[in-house]
Each structure stands twice: as C-alpha cells, then as structure tokens.
Amino acid sequence: MSSEIRRHRMGEAGPLPRRFHQARWDESVIFDLSTPGARGLLVPEVEREVADAAGNVLETIPEPLRRASPPALPELSQVHVLRHYLRVSQETLGADLNIDVGQGTCTMKHNPKINEQLARLPEISELHPLQDEDTVQGMLEIFYRFEQILKEISGLDRFTFQPGAGSQAIYTNAAIIRAYHATNGQAEQKDEIITTIFSHPSDAACPKVAGFKVITLYPDENGYPDLEALKAAVSDHTAGLMITNPEDTGIFNPRIAEFVRIVHEAGGLCAYDQANANGILGVTRAGDAGFDLCQFNLHKTFATPHGCGGPAAGATGVTAELARFLPVPVVEFDGERYRLDYDRPETIGKIRQFYGVAPAVLKAYAWVMSLGAEGLRQVAEVAVLNNNYLMHKVLQIRGVSAPYAQGKRRVEQVLLNLLSNAVKFTEKGGVTLRAEGASDNAAGAARPVVRLSVTDTGMGIKVEDLATLFQPFRQIDSGLARNHEGTGLGLAICRRLAELLGGEIRAESEWGKGSVFTCIMPLKEPAKS
Question: Residue 354: is it exposed, middle or buried by C-beta count within 10 angstroms (0-12/13-18/19+)?
C-alpha cells in the first residue's frame, strides 16, 4: 500500500472508508440516442427458396393482432449500445463494487454468484410461463420442494410464491384475512387491522388498500409494542394483526405470543411480517408463536438480489385452515407428477400474472440447500453478532445514543446456542439450565453479574478438544452415532458476543460424564475505553 493511499486509508481507530468518486455521465435514455437508419445488426435477405417454402407468414396472424406500423424501437449501432450501458453501469453503486458504504437496508448481503449462474442456464432463462406443465416439471419441483422448506422454517402449512415483492406478499395476507371474514359473514364488522409504528410501513399500507381501517400502536418506554395499547385497541371490529418482528428498531418483541393470543380472543387473525427474519432463522417460528399467516422476502432473507438488483419475490405462508384462500395456481404433487392447481373455489384469485419469479425461487432454494438447517441457524447467529458489534461501535461515537432498550442485554442467541450445543452432546441423560445473580472477581475487582449455567450429562468433550472448542470451523468428536457435531462457528460467535457485552463464556468438561458451559454477563454496561 503506497504512503499516499495509506494516509487516506488508515486512521487512529483503524481503516477508514476508501475515497470514492461516483462516475457521472450526461447520458440520456436510450430512446433519445436513436438515429434513424442506424443498425446494430444487418439481417440478410431471405433466400428465394426459403421464402417460397414458408409462404406469407403474416397471413397466419389474425388481422386484429397485426401491427399497423413497426414498433418504435431505438436505432443504434452496436458500439453505441455498448457505450450507453457501460456508462449507465458505472453510475450504479452496489454491493459487488463497494463494501465500505452500504445502502443500509436489511437486503445488502452476499448473493452467491454460483446461484446467479444457475438462474442464467438456458433451462431457466428460456422458460416461458405458458409452457405446458409436462415441459416444466423440473421448475415445478423446485417450487414444491422450496415450499416444503419454508413450511419447516415457518411452522405453517402452505405457501405461494406468486407475489412479486414483499409488499405484494403482505397485501396477499390482507386479502386472505378479508376473504376469511367474508366467508364467515363478518366482512362488514371485521374492518380493522392493528399494526405497530415500527413495523414495515407496508403492514399499514397494504390492509388500507385492501379496504381495512388501520390502527397503529406506539412503543412503550422499553421500545416494545405497547401491550396495554393493544388491549385497548382490540374489539369486535378487529380483523387481524399485521406486525414485523423484530421491528425496524432491531428489537425482538418477547411478548409476541401474548399479542397473538389477545387478537385471537377478539376473533382476529395474525400475520407475521418476516422481512427482518435474518436474525431469527432456526431460532423462532411464526407457527410456534401462533400466527395464522406469514410472509418472507426471498430477496432479503434468502439471498436473491433485491428490486433494481434483480427481480424480487415474496412468499406468503398460511395455516391449513387458510390454505383454501391462497391465490391460484398452487403447485401440487401426486407422487409422480407436479401440476398447477387452479380448481380452488375459495381462492382470492390472482395477485399477479402467472405463478411467481422462477429465477428468484431457484436462487433461494439453492442458497438454502447449500447451507442446510445448521447453516441457516448460523446465518442468524452471524447476523445478530454483526448487528450487536456495529451497535456497540456506533454508540461509542460522541453524541450517538440508542433510544430504546437501553441497558437491556441481548443474550438470547448466546443462551439458545449453548442449550443447542448441550442437546447435541446428550444422547442419553439430561440438560439443565440455572440462572443466578452473583459477584465475579475475575477482573480483579468484584462486580455484580448474572451467571447462566448450562449443564449436560452427555458424553462430554475430550481434553484435547477443549482448547479448540471455540474456534470456528473445527469439528468436535461427540462419541455419539452422529460422530462429529457442528463447525464451532456458533460457539465462536457466542463467545465474541459475550465479550462484546463485557462478559465471558467458560467451558468445563469431563469425557464420558458431561459438560458445563457458564455464561457470565455484567449487570451494568461495561465502561467505555
């Protein structure tokens, strides 16, 4: 690195963002660059023998379908087309070009290029939605298989990939809620949807478009949606709850099951907006919390490009009771053949044309299959670690503060990972959890702490493995039928997260008898250095 670059790249606190100047071209839209008569390709004249054999092809096209004049396409040479799109591409800033300053959305992540190559294979890129079902069995199988995966991830029973975006999937939820109450003869009475101010705006906009009145809840002093406000808002008019969790504050609502219960008691349905699901994959499920509907953004949570970076795709999931309202068609499998089922009398109809954005579903399916169940859980753990690390760094900047959940310790991921690890090593025996307040002298001075201990009576860990237990991508012999367990990445993340919050994780084990993992967290914020 040259001294000039180093001077601009390195600060007292570490590397600085690269100096960057966005390219700017005075480039018009391609239609304005058109020159009459210019050509990028000269099509040769049709040979007489070919013309005689083919006859007048236009006569086979019905008169109402024939153009009265040629389409007004831009006329440019090849070199002008190339220059135009290269200039436009230089004005596009994306994740592949710039990693120092991202767009600041839950979308910006690595989208594996091998999945992009899959989507560009002729077998996918040349598919047409009007092809006969027998010629697209492979793609229908991908749709069907990915539905089974999302059912497991969400805890719900059926999915549709017809929505072309997250907001369209949320609208699908609203339309299903409306259809459900209409079927029960309560369409006029059940006319209110409850959402929260820090849920995605579409959770208010979509039900409004669907004809509902919208009630918005504000947070309590801790930043959680106000439970008392919800109790005051529900009534005989409550059609449903549409809520994001974690909300856009990044705070997971620990009382979400209570929210669902209250709305259900009022006769409403509950829809889980999971656009922020990156941090909870494999940790919590919509179905387990009692939700009736949910929605994923494949272009956010499942690593397919977003919007202008590529076609978006929304996935709407429902319980078995609501499956009859899903938009048509849905993919069915009879054990031998996949088919598109349009015969669903209570369907809400079509949300958009055809079935869904096939390349986006393929890329999401490939991403999940490459990770597996444990890999998806690691996605959540890494997301939580990154978020907490960045929050910790940002809060050290003078004048910056976080308005909600001040002083709250976000140790759920640590505890859940330690419990999961204990279960893996315990084929026979039991796992116990103990939490207690204590005083810790490890730092040389007594400090109040909370001590979380996870004890298992499993096989334990060999002495030689304890030294590398918290190193990522190191497999440990469990001595069980599964032989090797995990990659160590989850434990490494947990230890780093605990240290970041001013705590630590200790491990003790005796081979053949079991292990004890102890997470010690201070009850006060660590002093800033």
Answer: middle
Which tokens belong to 333?
A: 């499998």
What is the CB neighbour count within 10 angstroms for residue 179? 20
**Helix or strand run (H / E) with residue 374:** helix 358-394
Q: For the chain, how many helices (H) and strands (E)?
A: 15, 17
pLDDT tens, position by position, 214-263: 999 998 887 889 999 999 999 999 999 999 988 877 788 888 999 999 99
Residue with token string 């000269």? 42
Contact 422/453 with Cβ under 8 angstroms?
no
Cβ–Cβ under 8 Å, residues 404 and 249: yes
| Residue 119 tokens, joined | 């989507």
Half-sphere exposure of 110 toward its Cβ, with a 13 Å CA cutoff? 8
- Reading the block at residue 379, the tokens are 């996605």
From the number of C-beta atoms within 10 Å of its C-beta (0-12, 13-18, 19+), residue 191 rates as middle
What are 95's two structure tokens?
A: 């994740």
Cα(282)–Cα(417) distance, integer angstroms: 11
Beta strands at 484-485 and 476-477: parallel, antiparallel or unpaired: antiparallel
Measured in whole angstroms, the distance separating CA 101 from the mean position of its chain's CA atoms is 21
The fold adopted by the segment(s) 156-367 is Aspartate Aminotransferase; domain 2 (3.40.640)
Which CATH code of 3.30.565.10, 3.40.50.300, 3.40.50.1440, 3.30.450.20 fits the domain covering 412-522?
3.30.565.10
Query: pLDDT (tens digit, 9 = 90+) per residue, 394-416?
Result: 677 666 566 666 655 444 445 55
